[in-house]
Each structure stands twice: as structure tokens, then as C-alpha cells.
TrEMBL record:
PANTHER family: PROTEIN ROOT INITIATION DEFECTIVE 3-LIKE (PTHR18763:SF4), WD-REPEAT PROTEIN 18 (PTHR18763). WD repeats lie at residues 126-157. The lineage of its organism: Eukaryota, Viridiplantae, Streptophyta, Embryophyta, Tracheophyta. This is Uncharacterized protein. InterPro entries: WD40/YVTN_repeat-like_dom_sf (IPR015943), WD40_repeat_dom_sf (IPR036322), WD40_rpt (IPR001680), WDR18/Ipi3/RID3 (IPR045227). Keywords: WD repeat. The keyword Flavoprotein does not apply. GO terms for cellular component: nuclear pre-replicative complex; rixosome complex. GO terms for biological process: DNA-templated DNA replication; rRNA processing. Pfam families: WD40 (PF00400).
Amino acid sequence: MDQRMDGEDEVVLVVCGEECDAAPMFDINTGEEILRIYDCLAPPSGLACVAGCLLATSRPDKDPLVFGGAIYFWDLNKIQVTSKSCIGEAIGPITCSKDGIYLVGGAHSGNAYIWEVASGALLKCWRAHKNAISCLSFSQDSSLIISGSEEGTVHVWCMISLFQAEEPQPHEAIKYCPNFYNSIEHEASITGILTILGGPCPMLITSSLDSSCKVCPLQDAILCALQT
């Protein structure tokens, strides 16, 4: 990630896991370890850089009296937790918009959540998949959210359409919003999502545990290439 420390831009690599006691940070050019962020844990795809200034991780809440999960935000200059956003279920993969305004998290239930980073406010919750969400990504212009599930489906969501959708009433279940584009299907869990907006046709690339990588136009999700 491109990180800003003490007013200077520096490209670093941060690695963490669910059972590690610390997350090491490496200089991407030299491979040298710069520092360690202690008590920084995250599940697969549960680590995100927020506008080069913050590090976000998803994990169970450290408070034993709180049931559910939380998003922790680390200040990379002070190397300490500055805030957290709590939710009533554990969050797995997370992703952040390029401008650092929004953070999206996916849950094992198939629910997806959008937070405003600056305030920590939960802005939106919707049923993105019928099964656990395994991967999330914003498009390069942050106008779309792409979600992948453990059952191998990929859905593309329009940010504007999500915010315009009606909120469920307190007595109603979380709504399953229709996805903005047709979904892509793999035969196993989604492991990676990438969008390429340059060129005449924006592309969506997805990878899966089924050992395949699919490439399709972002507008209509019609498969145009398959690499195994």
C-alpha cells in the first residue's frame, strides 16, 4: 500500500493473520522490516489501507462483553488504534474506497455493510449474497462495489443505487437487493477481484479456488475469457 508517514509518501507491505501476535510492516523496495503493529489481527481479506493514512482490520470485538465483530482503525503515524466501528456479527473481508470515505465489510451471513470512515457511522446494510462473503473490492473510480461469495458467485453493486434503495423497517428482515449487473459464477469460493477501467471497455477479473480466472466486460458481465 502507498502509505503517508510523517508527511512523506512511502510504499510498504503489511502482513497479518488471525493467529499472529503482530503485523509486520516491510519496505517494498528493500524488503526490510520497518516496524510491527501489535495486536493487529485480521481474517483473510480483512485488511485494508484507508487513503494511505489509516489501516483497517476486521476482527471479533476485543471486549468480551460485546457479541459480534468490529472494524478497527489504526493510525499509521502513531501505530495505535484510533477508533472502531462495532456490528452485531463477525466481519470477514473488507475494502475501502480510493478516497478513503467509505469502507465496506462482508459477513458470513451474506450481509454487506457500508461505513463512513470519518464518523464511523454505519450507512447501509443489505443482503448481498445467500452465503458467506469471501471477497470485496471497489472499482477504480469507487462508483461500484464488487462482492464475491464462498459459493462462487460475484455481484456488482452501484453505490448510488444502494443508497437510494429503501431501508427495511425494524420488523422486516434485511432486504436482498437486486445486483446492478448480472452475476458471474465460479465453482468454488471467490479469492480475488480486480477492475480495469482503462481502454474502450472496462473489465472485471475474478479468481476462485476452482483454479480459474474469469475476465468479462464490467457493463454486462458476459464472459469473454477463461484462464485455468
